[in-house]
Amino acid sequence: MSGYRLTRRVQFYETDVAGIVHFSWFYRYMEEAEHALWREAGLSIHPHGSEIGWPRVSASFDFHRALRFEDEFDVCLRIVELTSRRICYACVLQKQNLKMATGTMTVACVRKRPDRTLEAIDIPAEIASRFEVYRQ
Amino acid sequence: MSGYRLTRRVQFYETDVAGIVHFSWFYRYMEEAEHALWREAGLSIHPHGSEIGWPRVSASFDFHRALRFEDEFDVCLRIVELTSRRICYACVLQKQNLKMATGTMTVACVRKRPDRTLEAIDIPAEIASRFEVYRQ
Amino acid sequence: MSGYRLTRRVQFYETDVAGIVHFSWFYRYMEEAEHALWREAGLSIHPHGSEIGWPRVSASFDFHRALRFEDEFDVCLRIVELTSRRICYACVLQKQNLKMATGTMTVACVRKRPDRTLEAIDIPAEIASRFEVYRQ
Amino acid sequence: MSGYRLTRRVQFYETDVAGIVHFSWFYRYMEEAEHALWREAGLSIHPHGSEIGWPRVSASFDFHRALRFEDEFDVCLRIVELTSRRICYACVLQKQNLKMATGTMTVACVRKRPDRTLEAIDIPAEIASRFEVYRQ
Fold first, then answer.
1. Model pTM?
2. Alpha-carbon distance C62 to C129, whole Å?
3. Model ipTM?
4. B chain contacts of residue A69, beta-carbon cutoff 8 Å
């Protein structure tokens, strides 16, 4: 698996008083597509009881056009880099053929220590083997 | 402790395209006041590593008037019933002297079993002793 | 139209540190099903530029079981009362055959006055004619 | 005005099943500080009935450490660039003296046309005159 296209509709509670989707929701849309990609690869990013986690290292969006209540749109997520410890995604939100927003997100593989601190670790082989960098 | 008054301002992301606070936020406001009440009593409702939890059993609101961006309002929370296993709160949201909404919430004390299921238990004495029913 | 069944999966951002869906989300799930019901009836509950709105008058939930990350569930919404000015819904959230939560919601038809205050009005005939009370 | 420090506590509904604040909240924290900065300057970023809006052009965060339930933290926002049409902010989230996250956000001044499209315009003088770039 190297990418996923999620189709989604804007919900009422995702809009704000300016009449458009609040920008914080775009980061959630991107993460929804990530988790759908993992499920498509036969994995859960957060299986119950796992000591491994995937905190976000960075995330960004450039916003090109506004989304509105009940708009249908696609979240196109692609793996653009895969190192021993991190996955970098690129994301495009499209409504029909219009590019609405462009994002990136990097996540790291960590182990949760008993004291709740997080230790960066190598991505387990059984996870890394399911993913690859997207090639056009 | 038998009650708490939380003062709060409406944030932009709490509004929706109808120009008012989305109704789902009132339940969060009520819970914010609950957790502030617990802190005032010297407690955290969710201390790290605790095997005890406080899931919501029921919650309701009657909405009288709309809240808007940057409105300042008070969340007045009172304990109206305290049994061996549950706490019932009543809540009034006010803007100046106007009653905006009236809510109720009941929470139960549970222990989390290793298999993630929840078992209703008596409220520990060191918690129950900090609270009492509000009397006018 | 008198009811709608929405199938939905729990998203990561809907969970909280207790490991379950935060209770405020159930009200959003109920509203998602309402808006899907309206679309199924050929309507939008918030068409652009409309002076008519549907603020919530009251909403409640009894929570029976916890929902968790990636759980699939159904939101079964039914119209249980339809007056000249209000619609009352009943809602059951189910995971497979388990009843997870039971809710109610009443919404009123209002006109927005230029000064932003809301005036209760009769439900327009072209809307009322699309809905009816659910009968078993 | 060229900067603002907002003090804030993590709310329960801002956490997720991984036990930490969901990353989408950091963008909301940054915006909260922006709106507080505007109020401190005697302005509202969204006065009722205004035809001017401030959509986000881009926003990013690097996440250094996790925030948890009831953590107290500061959101330090500074204006780092001010052009005729845009404001760029830099943001640091700190818990005590620890840097938790570092963000940026650029917003543009727009006029809402009657057809809902947005037209980029110069920042009105009465707004631009209240702000300046932060200098150490």
1. 0.98
2. 31
3. 0.97
4. 17
